[in-house]
Amino acid sequence: MHRATTDSGRPGEGTQRASWWRDATRKGVARIVAAVFPADLRLFARALCSGPQAVGAACPSSRHLADYMAAQAVAASKGYIVELGAGTGVVTASLLAHGVAPERLIVVEKSALLAAHLRQRFPEVAILEGDAAELVSLLGWRAQRVSTVVSSLPLKSLPKSTVDQIGSALDAILPRGATFIQFTYSLRCRAIDWAQEITCLHSRTIWRNVPPARVNVFAWGNG
Ligand SMILES: C[S@@+](CC[C@H](N)C(=O)[O-])C[C@H]1O[C@@H](n2cnc3c(N)ncnc32)[C@H](O)[C@@H]1O
Fold first, then answer.
1. In the chain, at which end, N or C, are there fewer CB atoms within 10 A of the end residue's CB?
2. For the chain, which residues make up each domain, given as ranges?
3. Residue to substitute in 109, 155, 183 for testing ligand 1 pocket (most ligand atoms within 8 angstroms of CB)
4. What is the pLDDT of residues 73-95, one digit of tens each?
């Protein structure tokens, strides 16, 4: 009588070899993905998959964009700097590298996944997991000591009601003339569709970003 045999003739060896080969391929692919796509990019992709509208960007901001935003914030700032929608923390890192003391920086991020990453990456910075629309309650007593807000929020893809709430929250915390920095992928845009009055002080296109983006620096109120 004949039994089912493998190449070597021993039963079951073919199945073992196939599963070893599958594992090795899976590990190899995982290693290649890890080498080609840095951890931040993979984290960003996970956040993007779970909430594309809230993330509102195809990939993290470039260091060039982050450095320009940070330089504007540092030049303007006296009190707390609040960063909205920090994502993977490219702008946060740049703010710290530009000399902002960690205790002067408050970061607000809605995604639990990204907030956990930010806490791990910047243990010395206050990372508040929550919605920027709830900024006043998130900040508590610190709300009245904010001089500058740096925002990577995707204002063009968030629901209008959320954007309006964020505008009202900023109105409640920012003194007249305070600096508000926002980037946008809409290269011609120098305005934000808010009821609140804001004045664009200056604006620059950052070409070395994917896609290129415009950083607008506003004075809250009419300066
Ligand atoms: C364009 S991405 C940030 C890009 C970031 N500069 C980076 O390089 O990773 C926008 C971020 O805003 C966050 N976000 C969106 N809506 C928010 C809200 N209402 N409150 C706080 N964060 C929000 C998203 O979770 C996302 O991390």
1. N
2. 63-220
3. 109
4. 987 667 899 999 999 999 999 99
Query: Is residue 88 within 6 Å of ligand 1 at its C-beta?
Result: yes
- Which DSSP string do the residues of the chain spell out, in sequence order? ------TTS-TTHHHHHHHHHHHHHHHHHHHHHHHHS-HHHHHHHHHHHH-HHHH-SSSPPPHHHHHHHHHHHHHH-SSEEEEE--TTSHHHHHHHHTT--GGGEEEEE--HHHHHHHHHH-TTSEEEES-GGGHHHHHGGGGGGEEEEEE---TTTS-HHHHHHHHHHHHHHPPTT-EEEEEES-TT------SS-EEEEEEEEE-SSSS-EEEEEEEETT-
Q: Is 179 in the pocket of ligand 1 (CB under 6 A)?
A: no
Q: What is the pTM of this model?
A: 0.84
Closest CA to ligand 1's atom 27: 87
| Measured distance CA(220)–CA(223) in Å, rounded | 6
- Out of 3.40.570.10, 3.40.50.300, 3.40.50.720, 3.40.50.150, the CATH code matching 63-220 is 3.40.50.150
Nearest atom within ligand 1 for CA of residue 57: 1
